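TA notes. Do not distribute before section.
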Amino acid sequence: MSTLRGRGTVQGIAEWDRCAVMGVVNVTPDSFSDGGRWFDTTAAVKHGLELVAQGADLVDVGGESTRPGATRVDEDEELRRVVPVVRGLAAEGVTVSVDTMRASVARQAVEAGAVLVNDVSGGQADPRMVPTIAATDVPFVVMHWRGFSENMNSLAVYDDVVTEVVNELHARVEAVVDGGIAPERLIVDPGLGFAKHAEHDLALLARMDALRALGRPLLVAASRKRFLGRILAGEGHTPPPARERDAATAAVSAIAAREGAWAVRVHEVRATADAVRVARAIEGAAS
């Protein structure tokens, strides 16, 4: 089976002949890499359109930082941040995903035009999420998650991170299917950086075949994360700022595309859009 055929399709969303590029729009004052830059509806919509112009296939809009140690924003504030941006981008014809752990935000974002819900908790943070997604019948990202940002670093304890993440994701996929979400609408995400240290993230990227064996399309979200900063800094040196990790992010995107990822989620789109297209060309030449 080629990696192209192994990439999988998601019912209810467009198909691409290569790894898709998901651009990130954080409507937050405190996200780890670009907090505050798009903390205004007009600026956020403009940025989302710029990402599409640079090659994003879909745009993921989030109103709550999930960086390690972040405290949660309240529901009303998350709604205020997210829904107008989703509505504005959808009105421009953009394929929009909403990044939220709250069922109310997911529902209102879908009503505003979102076609995908990306829940970093995989439906565990809000017991209403799975029935809400089942009722709205949109695709759903199930990410590997062990707890909220305030304490997730303390949960990064594994004997065999690949086996444990795969098993925990498998159990979560079964739970959301039992909750009424069609398996054909599910995407899995290993949750790089969430309750994981750098060595865990690298081990998971080295075994994307094990993640693909779950049988669902794979989303890889490595963009600007801590493990890239540590690789670039080297032993004993200070990691570069998040926005100086985009070339490293594009390298991961190329590898993920070649390994059959369905999509990569990134802050800086242009380099990754080029990377996945090069990976697709090499894939085509080998077939």
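Switch to the second chain here.
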Amino acid sequence: MNILFIEDDPMNRRVVKDMLDVAGATMAEASWAEEGLAMLDADSFDVVLVDLRMPGMDGFETIQRIRARGDAKGELPIIVVTADTAVDLRERCLAVGADDVLFKPVAMDALFDSIGRVLAIRGGGGMIL
């Protein structure tokens, strides 16, 4: 399984990468939204993890840009990973096209459950964590 994580904080990327390593998944890291979108163009991924608060383009716009694609990559499962705890945040994320929302600090079981759930819903093949 190949996962793209778009997150500006290197420590948050490292923590999630360590969790995914346990399951044998690979993770590509993008430090900002534009870099992540370019990586999405260049490679194949099974799931995209996106932080909401990044310099430049935020996670909401990033999700909208992925969903606006006219190809299969526009249908990739997208999971928001955020420290934001606004009351309506989950609904706002789902409204722009996210499949699930995880709150930081992310627990390994929550990450694996979310990935498995969104892959099952979207019909993704391959390994489910």
